[in-house]
Every structure is written in structure tokens, then in C-alpha cells.
Structure to design on (624 residues):
């Protein structure tokens, strides 16, 4: 639920804010909220790390019900790296735009809207 | 020789390694060497792709299991005729654009970064098409997209590329975020990200945790996926980044972005619709895809008429042709898909040709506004010829390939006999006329009449720029006169699309 609220907030931020930096912040929040959602998919109350130890090798069904799903965490690690590179690129472009126009207001930059 | 199951890996690895080598080599090598290095790498990739396509054309499916993990657990690269076909189109166009870049980009600095990003983008695009794993597809899509954002904003000294790059970056990032959300939802529902496994579980209704509301969520997931890939493919309500981004990029990059990058979005849509969801022709979802296609076609066609910047006009024309492709795919029967995929091939060739020709004009004159140009026909005869061939091909004038594929799409639509489809066909024919109008307008402005400014010293482009254009225009004519040659490429791809059962079976069984 929280993730969906965050998605909504970030979409508002991207669509309605004029400042380029705030748009990038919105993008980051969007990415992170989706990561949070992915993590929630694999979460279990009172879960254990998905590593088969001696103790659980003898009792695999218990292990399956208790262990946290590791796959979404692997997804999120990848997605975090991707988000970071997009944020870095967008910020670099924003810096360049600021150097040329002297402003970060999207409405004042000639064609850029949104 | 490389064994066939290693070919997909070779196709992805070759440009990737080249991209990484170019950066450290950059300060020590000349611009020409970097260009030829990238060209050789893309040529090698193209050879691998052709070998792979010849392998899969008879319906065989090549599967590579990464690190030896079996299908539903590890990442697999799966190649059937459909993605073999798309990969071949992608790599072929990128190869020609790389040759063209050697001459076109020689006045720019930082070329090692340029070729490095170009190779990364190639690697990402072939990754998207070759992978058999939805999350892997997302990762490769991001690789290709980030390289594309960088390339659009490559000329940092001008203002347009910066703005367009930022806009493209934001819209593309939102799109991929939502694709990730949809993949997450699918994973939560099915407990797998392998496409074949997903398709199998969807068919049997085998949801994780005994979820009962799957049938409600699935169309929503599909909508989010189509929306995300639709932004990448510039379908009309989500097209606004394209007319900014494509003209702002250097011309060879425009050719790649317009020619093949948006097709990768279309490919992903086809894969999701036909392989994962296993949709049959006549499904109402396909009707929506088709309607979006027609709206795209009409909207972008009229906007293209109003443009004075030659590359902006071509960008709108790209959006319009995406509309035709979606129309063909959306009909969903065998003939419609043949038309759609054939048009995908044709439009990739034609639009790459037109952007390269426009790049040739811009490179020699430095002007992009069609109203200022004029009388170039006598000074640049070869560019004139290829522009005429490409332009009339896009507009669908009979002996050229654009006519053949459009005709098949219309024929497929009429054969279904539904009145709404016949209305769509009428729209399609009208839009073809509009395409003739803007192409003729461009030709008249650029090549004939009198120039408003001094263009006395303009010469024909150097041979390294002309060769790719001549190759592409030769293909336009050949595919137009002997369409059977094109059908031989497309028909196996369509068979693989319509009957995904053997794909699913072989991935899970092998």
C-alpha cells in the first residue's frame, strides 16, 4: 500500500514540478517505491535467510515455509544500480542545462515541458 | 566455428567488450581507428546474427543456458525465428550507421565515448531481443536506454540535445520503472520471470499462493507492460519525447533510434502479447493495440505535414509507421502479422536511409530548416536519388518495399471483413497520401527550386557516407521488386509468433 502511495506522490512530483532537480527527485522516489514493492513481495513475517543449513536440511518443508524469497532481493539490487546510473545521468544533464540557461525552471527553458 | 548455442552469447558479448575496450584505448588512438574498430565489431556481430538466423529459420530454437542453470531457475537466452529476425534487422542497421559515423562524426570530439555508447546500445538492444527472461529483458532495455539518453545528449555544446536528452531520460526512466513494476506484479503472481514458464503457468492458471484474483490483475499488468513498452515505441499518447530526441541526436544515432530502437519496443510488445499471454487472433486486447496503432498513424501523419525541420518531419513519420506496424500486429492473424513484421523490416531500412540522407544534407550544408534549402539536386545527385527512393518507399509508391508491406496489412484487414477494420484501412490509405504530400514537399524544398541563402560551395558527401545509403536503397528496391525474398525472412518469424507452443515446450524441456 505504502509503495502505491509513494508511486502516486512521485508521479505528481514528476508531472507537476517545474524544477528539474525536483523532477529527478521524483524519479528517484518512483524507482525506490517500486523497489520497496518488490522487496515486500518476498517478505515473510519471522522469515529466515534462504540458506540451507544442517538443521534445515533434515526438515526441508519447514525451510520452504520459513525462508524469505531471495529472488526479489536480487532484482532490487540490480534495479538500484540502474536507478543510480539514471539519476547520475539526469543530474549531469541538469547541471549542463543550468550552465547554459542559468535556470532550472522547466517553463523558462525553451521547449522542455513536463 | 562457434557452436550454435554460444552464438547468442557471442552476439551480446562482442559489442559489449568493444565498448569497454574503446574507453581506455581512446586517448592513444586516432578517431579513424576507433571508427573502424567499432565497425569491425558490429560487422562481426552481424555475421554471428546471420549465422544464428540461418540456424533458426526452419523453426529450430537455439537455447543457451547461462552458467548451465536449467530453464525456470537460471537465465536463458532463447532464439526462435521471431527474435532472430528482429536481431538481424537491428544489427544490420547499426552496422551501416557505424560505417556512416566514421565520416559524419569526424569533426566531433570524444569519439571514443561515442562509439563506446553506440556499442553499449547495440549490446542492450540485441540483449532485449535475444533473452528469454523478462527481468533480463528489463536490464538490457535499461542498458540500451541509458546509452541512448547519453547519445541523444552527445553534442553538449548545443542546447537542443541537452533538453531533448533530459526529456527522453525522464520519460524513458518512468517507462522502465513501470515495466519493472509490472514484472514485479507478474513475479508475485506466478513466482517466475522466465517467459516460457510464465506462459505455461498462465495457461494452466497455476498462481502462487493459490491467488484467486489473478484474472482481474492480469489485464492490469498487461496494460502497464504495454504502456511501458508503448513509451519506448512512441505510440501516440506517449510519443512526445520522440520528435525532440530523434532530431537532436547526431544523424547516425537518429537512424538507429528511429530505425530499430523503437522496433525493440514493438518486439517486446509482440513477445508479451503472443508468447507470454498467448493471445489468439480476434481477442479484444489486440483490437485496442490496433486502435492505438491507427490513432498513432493519423495523429503523427498530420503533424509531420506541419514540420519545417527535415529531421523532425522524419521523426513524426517514424511514429506514423509504428502505427502501421501496430495495425498489422493488432489484426493478429497470419497475414496481418506478416504485414506488420515485413513493415518493421521495411521501415527500419527506409527510415535509416532517410535519416542518413538527411544527415548527409546537414553535414554538407549545416542547415536543417527545409525552407532555407533549395536547389541541392544538381550538387548532391546521389543523396537526391536515395532520398527519392527512401521517401517514396515510406509513402508506399508501388515498386518499392513500403508499398508491399502496407498492401499486405490492408489486405489482411479487409479479409477479416469487419466494418471497423475497413474504416481503419481507409484511414491508412489516406495517411499514405499524406505521407506522399510531406515527402514531395520535402523534396521540392530541399533539392529543387532556388535557395534563399548561398549554397554554391556545397559538394556531394564523401564515399564512406554514401556507401551505407546506397546499400540501403538497393535493399529497398530489391525488396520492392522481389518481395518473395522478404517473405522468406518474415514467414518463419510469424510462424514462431503465432505458435509459441514449441518455444515454451523446448525452453522448459531443454
Amino acid at each position: 500500500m505504502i509503495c502505491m502511495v509513494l508511486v502516486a506522490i512521485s508521479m505528481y512530483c514528476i508531472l507537476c514540478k517545474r524544477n528539474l532537480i525536483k523532477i529527478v527527485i521524483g524519479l528517484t522516489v518512483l524507482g525506490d517505491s517500486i523497489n520497496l514493492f518488490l522487496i515486500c513481495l518476498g517478505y515473510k513475517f519471522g522469515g529466515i535467510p534462504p540458506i540451507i543449513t544442517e538443521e534445515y536440511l533434515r526438515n526441508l518443508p519447514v525451510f520452504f515455509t520459513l525462508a524469505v524469497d531471495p529472488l526479489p532481493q536480487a532484482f532490487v539490487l540490480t534495479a538500484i544500480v540502474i536507478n543510480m546510473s539514471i539519476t547520475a545521468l539526469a543530474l549531469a544533464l541538469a547541471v549542463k542545462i543550468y550552465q547554459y540557461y542559468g535556470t532550472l525552471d522547466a517553463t523558462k527553458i525553451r521547449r522542455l515541458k513536463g | 566455428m562457434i557452436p550454435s548455442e554460444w552464438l547468442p552469447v557471442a552476439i551480446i558479448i562482442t559489442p559489449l567488450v568493444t565498448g569497454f575496450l574503446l574507453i581506455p584505448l581512446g586517448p592513444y588512438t586516432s578517431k579513424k581507428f576507433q571508427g573502424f574498430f567499432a565497425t569491425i565489431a558490429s560487422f562481426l556481430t552481424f555475421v554471428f546474427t546471420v549465422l544464428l538466423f540461418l540456424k533458426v529459420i526452419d523453426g529450430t530454437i537455439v537455447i543457451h543456458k547461462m552458467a548451465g542453470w536449467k530453464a525456470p531457475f537460471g537465465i536463458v537466452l532463447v532464439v526462435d525465428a521471431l527474435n532472430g529476425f528482429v536481431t538481424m534487422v537491428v544489427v544490420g542497421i547499426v552496422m551501416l550507421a557505424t560505417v556512416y559515423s566514421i565520416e559524419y562524426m569526424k569533426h566531433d570530439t570524444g569519439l571514443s565515448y561515442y562509439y563506446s555508447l553506440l556499442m553499449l546500445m547495440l549490446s542492450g538492444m540485441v540483449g532485449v531481443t535475444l533473452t528469454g527472461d523478462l527481468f533480463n529483458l528489463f536490464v538490457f532495455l535499461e542498458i540500451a536506454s541509458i546509452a541512448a539518453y547519453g547519445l541523444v545528449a552527445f553534442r553538449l555544446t548545443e542546447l537542443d540535445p541537452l533538453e531533448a536528452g533530459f526529456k527522453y531520460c525522464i520519460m524513458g526512466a518512468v517507462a522502465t520503472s513501470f515495466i519493472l513494476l509490472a514484472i514485479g506484479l507478474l513475479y508475485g503472481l506466478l513466482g517466475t520471470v522466465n517467459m516460457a514458464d510464465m506462459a505455461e503457468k498462465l495457461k494452466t492458471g497455476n498462481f502462487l499462493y493459490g491467488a484467486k484474483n489473478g484474472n482481474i490483475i492480469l489485464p492490469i499488468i498487461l496494460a502497464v507492460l504495454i504502456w511501458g513498452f508503448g513509451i519506448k515505441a512512441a505510440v501516440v499518447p506517449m510519443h512526445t519525447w520522440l520528435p525532440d530526441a530523434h532530431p537532436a541526436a547526431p544523424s547516425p544515432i537518429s537512424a538507429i533510434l528511429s530505425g530499430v530502437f523503437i522496433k525493440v519496443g514493438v518486439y517486446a510488445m509482440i513477445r508479451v502479447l503472443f508468447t507470454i499471454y498467448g493471445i489468439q487472433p480476434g481477442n479484444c486486447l489486440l483490437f485496442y493495440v490496433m486502435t492505438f496503432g491507427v490513432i498513432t498513424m493519423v495523429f503523427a501523419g498530420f503533424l509531420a505535414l506541419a514540420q519545417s525541420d527535415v529531421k523532425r518531419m522524419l521523426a513524426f513519420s517514424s511514429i506514423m509507421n509504428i502505427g502501421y506496424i501496430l495495425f498489422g500486429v493488432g489484426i493478429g492473424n497470419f497475414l496481418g502479422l506478416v504485414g506488420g513484421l515485413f513493415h518493421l523490416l521495411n521501415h527500419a531500412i527506409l527510415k535509416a536511409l532517410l535519416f542518413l540522407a538527411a544527415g548527409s544534407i546537414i553535414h554538407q550544408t549545416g542547415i536543417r530548416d527545409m525552407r532555407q534549402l533549395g536547389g541541392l539536386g544538381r550538387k548532391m545527385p546521389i543523396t537526391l536519388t536515395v532520398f527519392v527512393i527512401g521517401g517514396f518507399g515510406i509513402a508506399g509508391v508501388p515498386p518499392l518495399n513500403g508499398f508491399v508491406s502496407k498492401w499486405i496489412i490492408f489486405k489482411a484487414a479487409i479479409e477479416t471483413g469487419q466494418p471497423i477494420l475497413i474504416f481503419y484501412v481507409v484511414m491508412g490509405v489516406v495517411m499514405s497520401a499524406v505521407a506522399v504530400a510531406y515527402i514531395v514537399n520535402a523534396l521540392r524544398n530541399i533539392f529543387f527550386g532556388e535557395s534563399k541563402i548561398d549554397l554554391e560551395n556545397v559538394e556531394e558527401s564523401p564515399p564512406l557516407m554514401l556507401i551505407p545509403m546506397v546499400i540501403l536503397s538497393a535493399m529497398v528496391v530489391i525488396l520492392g521488386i522481389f518481395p518473395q525474398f522478404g517473405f522468406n525472412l518474415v514467414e518463419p518469424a510469424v510462424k514462431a509468433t503465432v505458435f509459441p507452443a514449441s518455444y515454451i515446450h523446448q525452453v522448459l524441456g531443454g
Q: What stands out?
A: Residues 159-190 of chain B form the longest helix (32 residues).
